[in-house]
Design brief:
Length: about 250
């Protein structure tokens, strides 16, 4: 019989109207794809049309564990109100405080495909995330980093979060599940940063999303293993931070 890949722990999905309350109350929220489409103003077809861009992600050359299982791109944007602009290409940087494995490194990844950035759905997604961050933290200029990521099983196992359970040092984190193909594992775990409570579940629906108040929770995703050929897990991670990009002073980023 074929190996079953149906998730065992189903995501604690909330309705679109409960998003802000859930984020404010427990520090995280999961939305299904229909809710993402409704809140962002993107059609399901527009979101699914972004998926092929994950097939052209270059390898991540900065994995300290020597792995070959991650492919990614990275681009940065600034959002103020409805005014969204891509900024000149820059490295991704995190302090060791938030990423003990890859922190302190200037990691210059290849930028996102301009054709993807030019799609109307892309701008709608970022503007919606900006509205969500402003509802949570107050309206302000948002410094956005976007990471299209593919974790595959080239090494027999793929690690979505090789740094382990972590925070990102930002205000809001969005983890969109773009595709989950032929894998087992990949369980998402969210815990209170200063308490015992936590939840575990598996994102499986394309364009469902986990939203995190980064100051209040830590998160991780367990390794994946293949159950069929060409196994992979594609995600889009978007972070929003007030004041500046990490590694820059607010004055320099203004």
């Amino acid at each position: 019989m074929p190996v079953m890949t149906r998730p065992f722990f189903f995501p604690p999905v909330v309705s679109p109207g409960a998003l802000d309350t859930s984020l404010q109350g427990q520090g995280h929220a999961v939305l299904d794809a229909a809710a993402v489409a409704q809140l962002s103003g993107c059609s399901a077809a527009e979101l699914l049309a972004l998926g092929p861009y994950w097939d052209a992600l270059p390898p991540d050359a900065f994995l300290k564990d020597g792995g070959r299982y991650r492919r990614r791109r990275h681009s940065c944007f600034v959002l103020e109100g409805d005014s969204l602009a891509q900024v000149p290409h820059r490295p991704h940087w995190q302090p060791l405080e938030y990423n003990a494995l890859h922190g302190g490194m200037q990691r210059l990844f290849e930028p996102m495909d301009p054709a993807m950035v030019a799609r109307p759905a892309w701008g709608r997604l970022l503007r919606w995330l900006g509205r969500t961050a402003s509802a949570l933290k107050g309206a302000q200029r948002w410094y956005i980093e976007a990471h299209p990521l593919r974790i595959d099983t080239t090494d027999g196992i793929g690690r979505p979060t090789p740094e382990g359970a972590h925070r990102d040092g930002v205000d809001l984190v969005a983890v969109f599940l773009v595709q989950r193909r032929g894998v087992k594992g990949g369980e998402t775990r969210v815990f209170q940063a200063t308490g015992p409570s936590g939840q575990r579940f598996t994102l499986s629906e394309p364009w469902s999303v986990l939203l995190l108040d980064d100051a209040r929770v830590i998160h991780e995703t367990t390794p994946i293993q293949p159950v069929e050929a060409l196994a992979c897990r594609d995600t889009l991670v978007v972070t929003l931070r007030a004041g500046a990009f990490q590694g820059e002073g607010a004055a320099a980023a203004a």
